[in-house]
Design goal:
Length: 202
């Protein structure tokens, strides 16, 4: 089923999504890959060191998320490293990268409010558990279609970590950005269900 959603992505919107749904996203999404995620963890670790009292730890979710370079609550993060933009375009080819490279970081970000991830490929069980625990969602964008996906990106701004080059954090404004729900908030996994359906046909 085709669905249209806007960012920030609410929990109510996520609950309506099911593995296999075609979804078109409009609004703001953030770009971050492994090097940026590593810095996120370092920033969170530093923030935790200053949360010394039990009261601070109780309010820690909001305080920790403030240590990151963009608002994490209900945000969508795209695992992507763009190519240089051609003249007159906000961004170059913008295809997804392998999501499993972010698996060791994703549960912590989901627990702090991240609502959606966009990438390609399978996720670890720890990520699936965090998706269910936090009523979040994992989308796949079509690999090898970066030039087509870039046409849905209307604006691209640098947020931070310019020294990382293609792995810097970007803020994108997108319109009808096409993705597929791979893991929904109930833990249904398209990569598993699709294989079972294919096996039935065979």
């Amino acid at each position: 089923m085709d669905k249209h959603i806007a960012t920030p992505i609410t929990e109510e919107a996520v609950r309506e999504l099911r593995a296999g749904d075609y979804v078109y996203i409009s609004g703001t999404i953030y770009v971050a890959r492994d090097a940026a995620h590593k810095r996120f963890m370092e920033a969170l670790d530093r923030a935790e060191e200053f949360s010394v009292s039990e009261q601070q730890k109780e309010a820690g979710k909001n305080k920790l998320s403030e240590a990151l370079p963009f608002p994490l609550e209900n945000a969508a993060v795209y695992y992507m490293g763009p190519s240089p933009a051609r003249e007159g375009r906000p961004i170059g080819s913008a295809g997804p990268t392998t999501a499993s490279r972010m698996d060791k970081y994703a549960p912590r970000l989901l627990d702090l409010g991240l609502k959606a991830m966009i990438g390609k490929g399978k996720r670890a069980q720890s990520v699936i558990d965090a998706i269910v625990r936090n009523q979040a969602v994992y989308f796949a964008a079509v690999g090898g279609a970066g030039a087509l996906l870039s046409k849905c990106i209307k604006k691209s701004d640098l947020v931070c970590y310019e020294d990382l080059g293609a792995e810097a954090v970007l803020k994108l404004e997108v319109e009808d950005f096409p993705v597929v729900v791979v893991i929904d908030c109930q833990g249904n996994n398209l990569y598993e269900t699709a294989i079972r359906e294919y096996a039935k046909v065979i």
